[in-house]
Design brief:
disordered N terminus, mainly beta, 27-stranded antiparallel beta sheet, 5-stranded mixed beta sheet, about 950 residues, membrane, transmembrane
């Protein structure tokens, strides 16, 4: 392990030093310290009195909300011990977070059956009511890279639909608000140190309290390091954040002003799919007869599901090439957010019921994305190397010979070129004759890069695909509100707001292709072509194990400028029993995009190297440089509305109903992909592509909340209307297609553009229950259940598929028509269950120990949805358990075991094909992302 414990101690000390002055000053101002007060939900207080601040313009309680709202308090978050934002959001009904299986950051979540597009497209993350970054779906910069909940987090609130789409940008599915702790009337603070059995150590701290009669402050943060929840063999996670705030309140409480600052500099490993094998099947799945994967039949291919990973000390670093020359990539950099966030907000109450409030946030910094994806080519070394000989030696050299490209390094390196009239000799030569007459190379061999030893034929090899990106980003959000209270058939609180946002986004992305073995400590492999005597001929196929050290990618510059106006009326009438929220929002986005795809191939063979010699490498012959720019300059706009009501029959019982039509303007992913560039040609005609997504949502529910029993039941219907999509496929029947050796060269065929839409309709119910039986003090039974039935509407399009012979050589192509209409979207379960029983032993035994458990269940899910490889991955469950021991009034200990039963299942996976066999040929292979195996965490907390 290369991490220095000295540096860790130094950075931990720096965190303490940052907090110490605030602590001392707060003690001087406040006198005696008072213990921190637990929130209502955690302490067992009346849940009907839980106050919410998200989706409302007037502070209200959870029971009285006119929309779907779910909350978790700070103490409950600490007990759940989530390892990431996605892990935390898995506790909210309606959100599927895919088990946080990518690591501490850059996970995917879905909301109420909305399409899985990656990241947080339909679930923007707010910090205290303003977006951490204006656009929640940005390639290589998921919204969760900004969010690290710690002891400074007071609560997390989730609003689904309704006023979330009125008050906030992009609130199409769920708006998640992370509420920060502020200073109170008394000194409060805490320190927590946490250990885990995978080389994890983390320290959290905060201090808050009064600084003067009118000024309070809070400051805190965390720092941690970890070897990685999967065994990378090096320090995989390291870094942390510091954040704080100052709040001024005037003597008459009519004016408040607040300043917040946050600095985050963190690195986390990104874990990807692992190779798997399943029992042999003869035909790939179809919609009527999908390939059903059973949990107990899945076997690993070389890497342990529980704690294994393709990353290792041997492949931690590798070289990439591009317009910059050569650079060394370090996988330990992982996901690396380095951002500063400054927020100013305030409010002022005027006479006659008027109130003005504002919030301004500026975020700037960069995010590094260093991830190595797993290829789906796992095979024995003998088969893998033979495929390289066929596809990377013979095929390109044969193509060069047919085209009389006599300067091709593979042709002159691996084959004998006739001295006289070679073009005539090669004209229309068959593949077999080309090999028989001219081949110097008879095969490909592999040697481990670290020690040069030969790769045995029984070893297992695969491709690894590094995605390396760096993003420079800034975001400014300004929210101004004017609120007026007046009487008209009850009390109205009318809010009129304007919202302004600007952001910039500059990603530089490049991929590569590496060769590695598949083992617990994966090692990179160098490939060379050899003759019948085993001697190298011609250039090496790889350079430092990279067969393509500079592959596809892009370089972009994107600027967004948005404006919004909204109106929301909160009306309470009938003796405050009936509450109605009615609102409308208009928003636009002016986008300016310049994108340069890495589509220009450049030969970077060094000067002085003899092309085709054994001192040469073929890896540097086709390096992708950024090409000509593609641009987009357009303005988009959307209009949405929401109407909801809540009627309280009693203090405990209320019903609510909601109808809303929300919109989603093009995301950074859409803009960067130029998917919303405007008019496009479909079947020879220009068609204007719709760029704005909409969701029509209807919901009604019932809430019954008392100290001893709580129930919330919601029934919802969503109709998601996407932007238009353009499917582009090759016209393989066109006369303009070139052929070589009788095989169509598909890249020479013209494109066909096909317009289609993939909508989703979903009907579902969410049930939340809690029970604290009076007959058994200390027992709490709590949980939620989600039942949904999402279905795709539309999505009819065409793809082309390769024809291959027994040796994997491409022999042609054919069309495959696809229809997803009426099918369940990919990666969405129909059933989700989250049960959380706990038992405080104090009243029964006098011992201040609380035991708890958590059972999470997710139903089966489809892989990518096509007609010819429909795969259904199995349902899975996770059991977590732990104990909390109150050592003293202020000191407590916490033991948490995640995945107690070591459930080894998969959150998602690629579709499985019948012609992709495991290395021994007896099973089929694929790739899927497994759950993390069992882990144990222990923490000590001191709160005052």
């Amino acid at each position: 392990m290369t991490y220095s414990i000295t540096r860790y101690l130094a950075r931990s000390a720096a965190l303490a030093i940052c907090l110490a002055p605030a602590l001392v000053f707060a003690q001087q101002q406040s006198g005696a310290a008072a213990p921190a007060q637990p929130n209502a939900e955690a302490s067992g207080a009346d849940p009907s009195a839980v106050v919410i601040v998200t989706g409302v313009t007037k502070t209200t309680t959870k029971k009285n909300a006119t929309f779907s709202i779910n909350t978790l308090g700070g103490e409950e978050i600490q007990r759940l011990a989530p390892m990431s934002t996605a892990d935390l959001l898995a506790n909210f009904p309606g959100i599927y977070s895919e088990g946080s299986s990518a690591g501490e950051a850059s996970n995917n979540i879905t909301v109420r059956g909305l399409p899985v597009t990656g990241g947080y497209r339909f679930a923007p993350q707010l910090i205290d009511g303003l977006p951490a970054y204006e656009e929640p779906e940005a390639p290589f910069m998921n919204n969760d890279v900004f969010i690290r909940d710690d002891l400074m987090t007071d609560s997390v609130e989730v609003v689904k639909g309704g006023p979330g789409g009125i008050l906030y940008s992009n609130g199409l599915g769920a708006t998640v608000n992370h509420v920060t702790r502020t200073g109170g009337d008394h000194l409060a603070g805490g320190y927590k140190i946490e250990y885990a059995d995978y080389g994890f150590i983390r320290q959290d701290a905060f201090v808050s309290g009064p600084l003067s009669p009118n000024l309070t402050g809070a400051v805190g943060g965390f720092y941690r390091r970890s070897n990685g929840i999967r065994d990378t063999g090096y320090t995989a996670d390291r870094g942390g954040q510091v954040r704080g705030n100052l709040v001024y309140t005037s003597d008459d409480h009519m004016t408040t002003a607040r300043a917040d600052a946050l600095l985050i500099n963190d690195r986390t490993a990104f874990y990807q799919n692992l190779p798997i094998s399943v029992p042999r099947f003869n035909a790939s799945g179809t919609p009527a007869n999908p390939t059903v994967i059973k949990q107990d039949t899945i076997q690993p291919l070389g890497i342990d599901f529980a704690h294994g990973t393709t990353a290792s000390p041997y492949n931690r670093t590798f070289n990439m090439m591009g317009e910059y020359g050569s650079r060394t990539i370090d996988q330990a950099d992982g996901i690396h957010p380095d951002f500063r966030m400054l927020t100013l907000s305030g409010s002022h109450e005027l006479a006659n019921g008027w109130k003005l409030s504002s919030g301004l946030r500026y975020t700037t910094g960069s995010n590094g994305f260093n991830a190595v994806f797993t290829g789906n080519d796992t095979a024995t070394a003998s088969n893998f190397l033979n495929a390289r000989y066929q596809n990377d030696v013979i095929s390109p050299a044969h193509g060069a010979a047919l085209g009389c490209n006599l300067n091709n390094a593979k042709l002159i390196g691996y084959f004998n070129v006739p001295a006289s009239n070679p073009c005539a000799a090669f004209a229309n030569i068959s593949r077999d004759d080309f090999i028989r007459k001219y081949a110097k190379a008879t095969g490909v061999v592999g040697h481990y890069l670290n020690d040069g030893s030969p790769v045995p034929g029984t070893a297992t090899l695969n491709f690894a695909v590094p995605f390396i990106a760096n993003v420079d980003a800034t975001s400014t959000s300004l929210d101004l509100k004017a609120q007026k209270s007046f009487q008209l058939q009850g009390t109205h609180d009318l809010t009129m707001g304007i919202y302004k946002s600007r952001y910039s986004y500059a990603p530089n992305f490049q991929a590569g292709l590496l060769v590695t073995d598949v083992a617990a400590r994966s090692r990179p492999v160098e490939l060379t072509a050899v003759d019948a005597q085993g001697q190298q001929v011609g250039p090496s196929l790889t350079s430092g194990s990279a067969i393509l050290p500079g592959w596809f990618g892009f370089v972009s510059q994107i600027h967004g400028d948005g404006n919004a106006a909204y109106l929301l009326d909160h009306w309470e009438t009938m003796g405050n029993k009936l509450k109605i929220d009615a609102g409308v929002r208009w928003q636009d986005l002016k986008a300016d995009v310049v994108r340069r795809d890495r589509n220009t191939t450049v030969d970077l063979t060094p000067a002085g190297t003899v092309v085709g010699s054994t001192q040469d490498t073929a890896a540097d012959n086709e390096i992708s440089f950024p090409g000509a720019p593609s641009t987009l300059n357009k303005t988009y706009h959307g209009l949405g509305w929401s109407l909801g009501g809540n009627y309280s029959f009693s203090k405990a019982l209320a019903v609510y109903a909601l109808a809303s039509n929300s919109f989603r303007l093009p995301s950074l992913q859409d803009l960067n992909d130029l998917a919303v560039a405007g008019a496009t040609v479909v079947n020879g005609k220009q068609v204007e592509v719709s760029a704005v997504e909409h969701i029509r949502q209807y919901e009604m529910g019932l809430r019954y909340l008392t100290r001893g029993f709580g129930a919330s039941v919601a029934v919802f219907y969503n109709n998601f209307s996407p932007r238009s999509a353009v499917n582009v496929y090759k016209d393989i029947q066109s006369a303009s297609c070139a052929t070589q050796g009788g095989v169509t060269q598909i890249n020479s065929c013209p494109d066909v553009a096909q317009l289609y839409k993939r909508g989703v309709q979903n009907v579902g119910t969410e049930v939340e229950l809690s029970w604290r039986p009076a007959a058994l003090a200390g027992l709490e039974l709590k949980g939620n259940v989600v039942l949904q039935n999402p279905k795709v509407t539309g999505a009819n399009y065409t793809i082309t598929q390769e024809d291959k012979d027994a040796q994997g050589v491409i022999t042609g192509y054919h069309y495959v028509p696809i229809s997803e209409d009426g099918r369940r979207p990919r990666r969405l379960p129909k059933v989700m269950v989250n049960l959380m029983p706990s038992y405080d032993l104090l009243s029964l035994t006098g011992v201040p120990v609380s035991l708890y458990a958590q059972y999470q269940y997710y139903g089966s899910r489809f892989s990518e949805a096509t007609d010819n490889n429909v795969t259904l991955y199995p349902a899975y469950h996770i059991i977590n358990a732990g104990a909390q021991y109150q050592i003293s009034e202020r000191l407590s200990a916490h033991l948490h075991v995640a995945n107690l039963t070591n459930q080894l299942s998969f959150t998602e996976g690629d579709p499985l094909f019948s012609d992709l066999l495991s290395p021994d040929g007896t099973r089929n292979r694929g790739v899927a992302r497994p759950l993390f195996g069992r882990t144990v965490r222990f923490s000590l907390s001191y709160m005052f």
